[in-house]
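Need a sequence for this fold. Nothing fancy.
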């Protein structure tokens, strides 16, 4: 029998350890997808959070970079949970749950911690889709990860120089977070976007394979072929899309990278 919850959308989440900066129990939300099929196992309620410090050349959510925009809305955990609970039967029936993505959800890790805690109180599977840009290693992060069933970690490029060209900043924080997940034995899935000219070569695939080879917590690697679907958002944000003319990689390239990563003992999906 399902347990019902009484929710007052005007009431903020209980304040436990409010954490850093000016967290007031609310998340800054870009958008919601009620039945996402590509953001973790099964059908998922997907919350896209505002804010990201990476500047990926291929970003298809360019409009999530800024923490505050005219389109963003603030939501409390009870407000989000009211929506989640209305979909919980569909989510559970497919082996799904909820996913926090963005943007970069770790920039709002207090809110995600509170939301995932509420979800697990109702036995709802939680997934953190992150580029690993953790600013603080503290009790809040640990509490968040304790209430996370799966981390989908974007490892964009292991070579530090190529990473800076592709993403705009070093990969130091991401690699540190990957090691931290491994130390915690945190169930994780690595996501790797295959971008022609940046991540589609044999050397880059071997670097990734070597980096994750001994990480027993990485259950699989998901290869994501580059696409141009978000290019129009750059113009809407007043920016120039620098990968114009770059097209999705051929299947042969994906299969080659798949074979390389499999040689390091990892399961590969694409």
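Here you go.
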């Amino acid at each position: 029998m399902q347990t019902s919850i009484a929710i007052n959308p005007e009431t903020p989440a209980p304040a436990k350890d409010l954490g850093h900066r000016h967290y007031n129990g609310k998340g800054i939300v870009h958008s919601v997808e009620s039945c996402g099929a590509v953001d973790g196992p099964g059908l998922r309620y997907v919350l896209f959070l505002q804010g990201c410090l990476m500047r990926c050349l291929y970003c298809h959510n360019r409009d999530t970079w800024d923490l505050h925009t005219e389109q963003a809305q603030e939501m409390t955990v009870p407000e989000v949970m009211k929506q989640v609970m209305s979909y919980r039967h569909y989510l559970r029936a497919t082996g799904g749950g909820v996913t926090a993505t963005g943007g970069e959800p770790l920039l709002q890790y207090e809110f995600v911690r509170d939301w995932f805690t509420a979800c697990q109180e109702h036995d709802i599977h939680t997934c953190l889709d992150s580029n690993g840009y953790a600013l603080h290693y503290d009790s809040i992060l640990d509490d968040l990860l304790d209430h996370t069933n799966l981390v989908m970690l974007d490892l964009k490029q292991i070579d530090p120089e190529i990473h800076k060209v592709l993403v705009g900043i070093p990969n130091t924080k991401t690699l540190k977070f990957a090691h931290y997940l491994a130390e915690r034995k945190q169930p994780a899935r690595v996501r790797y976007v295959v971008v022609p000219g940046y991540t589609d070569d044999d050397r880059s695939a071997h670097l990734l394979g070597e980096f994750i080879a001994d990480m027993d917590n990485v259950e699989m690697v998901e290869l994501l072929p580059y696409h141009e679907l978000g290019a129009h958002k750059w113009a809407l944000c007043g920016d120039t899309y620098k990968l114009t003319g770059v097209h999705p990689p051929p299947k042969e390239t994906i299969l080659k990278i798949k074979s390389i990563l499999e040689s390091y003992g990892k399961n590969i999906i694409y």
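For context: The radius of gyration is 18 Å.
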